[in-house]
Amino acid sequence: MTPRSTSRIRRAGPLTLRGKAIPSTTTDQRLLDGRGPSDWVHTDPWRVLRIQAEFVEGFGFLSELGSAVSVFGSARVEPGDPFYEKAERMGRALAEAGYAVITGGGPGLMEAANKGAQEGGGLSVGLGIELPFEERLNEHLDMGLSFRYFFVRKTMFVKYAQAFVVMPGGFGTLDELFEAITLVQTGKVTRFPVVLVGSEYWRGLFDWIRGTLLAEGKISPGDVDLMQLVDEPEEVIAIIREAHREAERRLREGEPAAEAGANGAADDQEGLADSQRGGGMG
User: Fold this and answer.
1) Residue 30, in any domain of the structure
2) CB 94 within 8 A of CB 101
3) What's the rounded Cα separation, in Å, for the pair 241 and 238?
4) What distance in Å separates the CA atoms of residue 144 and residue 23, rounded to the nearest whole number?
5) Residue 249 maps to which CATH number?
6) Which of 39, 153, 201, 249 could form a disulfide with 147 if both were Cys (CB 3.0 to 4.6 A apart)?
7) What local confidence, expressed as pLDDT, does residue 251 receive?
8) Tens digits of per-residue pLDDT, 50-87?
9) Euclidean distance between the first and final Cα of the chain, in Å?
10) How many Å apart are CA 28 and CA 51, to the nearest integer?
C-alpha cells in the first residue's frame, strides 16, 4: 500500500493545493488586507465574480436539501470525549426526526454530528472552509462543499437551516452563535430555535449576558430568550419540533411570524413561508 503523503494540503474552493503550490495567504486574507490606493482596481472588482460563483454553487448544491438543522461545535474534541458521544447522539436524533444535519464539515464535534446523522439514516452535509492549516472534510458526509469565503459559507448555514444547535466550542462556534442571534434579534430572519447544549459549559456565558448585558441595558429583556440552554439531544428535538409546529400553525391560520426579538421586528408571512420551505433566511 502506498504510504499516505505527509505534505501540507490546502483546499481552496474546488482546488486542492500541496506543498509549494500553497499560497502564503488565504483568499479571505487577500480580500480583506489593505493595499495601495489603486491596487483594488486590478483585483477586487474581478474578485466579485468568484464570490458570486461561490454563492451560485452553494445555492445550487443545497437548494433541494429540505428540512435541516445546523450543528456547530469544536473541531478539537476527540473521540472518547463525552461531548463527542453526545454530538453523535445529536446527529442521530436529528436524522431520526427527519432533519438533514449541516456542520462545518471538519473534525471533532462536527465529525461526530455527521457520523450520528449517517447512522440515523439521515442526510449528512458538511460545509468546509479554506484555512491556512490543513482541515479536510470529515469521512462521514453524504454531501460536502468547501468555500473560500467565510461570509458565503455563513449564508449557507443560515439560509438552509431551520434551527441552530450549538455544542461546546471556541471562537468559530461563538461567531456562528452570535451571527444567528443578531440576525434573529434584528428581524433579518424569521425567528428560529437557537439551542445551546451543555449547561455547565455555557452557564458562564448566560450569567454574563444576564448579569452584564441585560443589567446594563445593552440588550432588552426578551433578547435573553432568543437562546435556550439544554443538556440532552431529546430536549433539542422537542424544542425544534415545538417551534415548527407553532410556525406551521401561524402559517395555516394566516398569522404573522413570531416576533424576532425584543426590537419588535417581525417578518411577514412570506418570510415565514420561506422558513417552512427549509431556510431560516430568504
Assistant:
1) no
2) yes
3) 5
4) 23
5) 3.40.50.450
6) 153
7) 83
8) 899 999 999 999 999 999 999 999 999 999 999 999 99
9) 49
10) 11
